[in-house]
Known about the structure:
8 helices, mainly alpha, single chain
Amino acid sequence: MNESLSSMIVPGVLWALVVFSVLSWGLLLIKSAQYLKLKTQNKQFSKAFWTAPDLLTAAEHATQYPGSLARIANSGFEAMAVDESPRTTQQLAHTINRSDRLERNLRQQIQKERRALEAGQAILASIGSTAPFIGLFGTVWGIMEALQSIGASGSASLETVAGPIGHALIATGVGIAVAVPAVLIYNFFLRRLKLAVADMDDFAHDFDSLAQRSAFAVSRQPIAHKHGQSVREAS
């Protein structure tokens, strides 16, 4: 039983590394499609939002378009639309003024979008950091088995030693070959994540400026925003 288990260690390590490699390249395709789709959606929404004639039309666009920026805008409009009429019962929503409530909603939605974009990043980081050690474990185990076999045979010639040890070193090579692409893919999407979050922060800042200029009211007022210019410049 022990000999059977021992003979399965190195093949098991190699198959585990193959699975890790498949996961890495699969995540590359999935995350690439995710970011490409998000970029297209945000571009379409931004064009519709900033060319809207008034805040009411912009609010309608926020509910109609997909994408992270549309969801951020929608959360902002929800904060602006909370009923401020006199109340007879205490409600927590009324204990926060509109400016703070808007800032909180925008920040919370950005965090939600960030968590969605971070999906799969932990897997890539884990593969990149553990694959070399898993391969090294397979190599150490293979060398141990090779030395035991050499000791049992009583022969220490170069041909007897080089073959089993060279075979055992394959696991380390495969582990490194799996880890390097995983680390590169992780760093690539980490950069994309930072850029996406920066874009969301910029949009949230512009949205907050726009809300302040409109006195936190969604009404038929023209949006003084030119394409390519920040609301901050207009205010």
